[in-house]
Amino acid sequence: MLSTVKVTYKDEDYDIPKETPYFLGRSNLLGISDPNVSRKQVCIFWNNESCYIETLGLNPSHFMDQIMEKGKRYIIKNGEYIELLPSKYKFVLKILEQEDSDYFDQTLPLNSEGNEINENELSESSFKLMSESQYSHESHSDGVSSESDFIGNFIDIDSDYEALKVESDLSSFNLTAPKSNNSTLLEGVPKFWKQKSYRNFVKITGKLLEEEYPAAKAVQIRKMIKSRWDELDELEQQSYYPKEERE
Description:
Distance between the termini: 79 Å
Strand order of the largest sheet: 4-3-5-10-7-8
Strand content: 15-25%
Number of domains: 2
Low-confidence stretches: 24-38, 99-196
Shape: elongated
Radius of gyration: 22 Å
């Protein structure tokens, strides 16, 4: 028989299994039909004090009054709830324990000043938005730097920022780490992207970077992006124009 722990939610007592995550709420999408809980709320109980969660579906949902984004990871504490919004999509959630997730590797999240948050600060603020790119692996068997992976993971082609939709189809846009010293550092960029598109791209990515990272780090990353962009431009010219035309 599973060991349980008694919890109180919405003035009702529940016996919750200790060893597994437990969803408590009322939602047709999750197959939960508890009449004592709001239809739009899902309460997650976990045997640890807190855990990481990641939304995998396209469903709209709120956690701590902020919209949960697909592919982003959040810290949730026992007893906190997610509010499901009206949607035709299935609600899909992945739960990760910190010690089992090599993305985090005992690394504390950063605050707005770029300093590590200590355990006391972390307990006071249970909601911290974290992108996978912040916690890229420190070591790579192929020798590619974590900075390269960081930039590749940071660019989100599914972003809702309208300004990213400039003159071209972004669906083929990817920043990837080089496989060799001879390979292009930027792959998948449409060949007809010109200076205006680049300016828009830098403007939006710069805004995103400055929202999440210290100014000095944001400037450093933008310089790396520009360097890769310039290299791609040079490779395109070499590929599409004879040497005499370029000179």
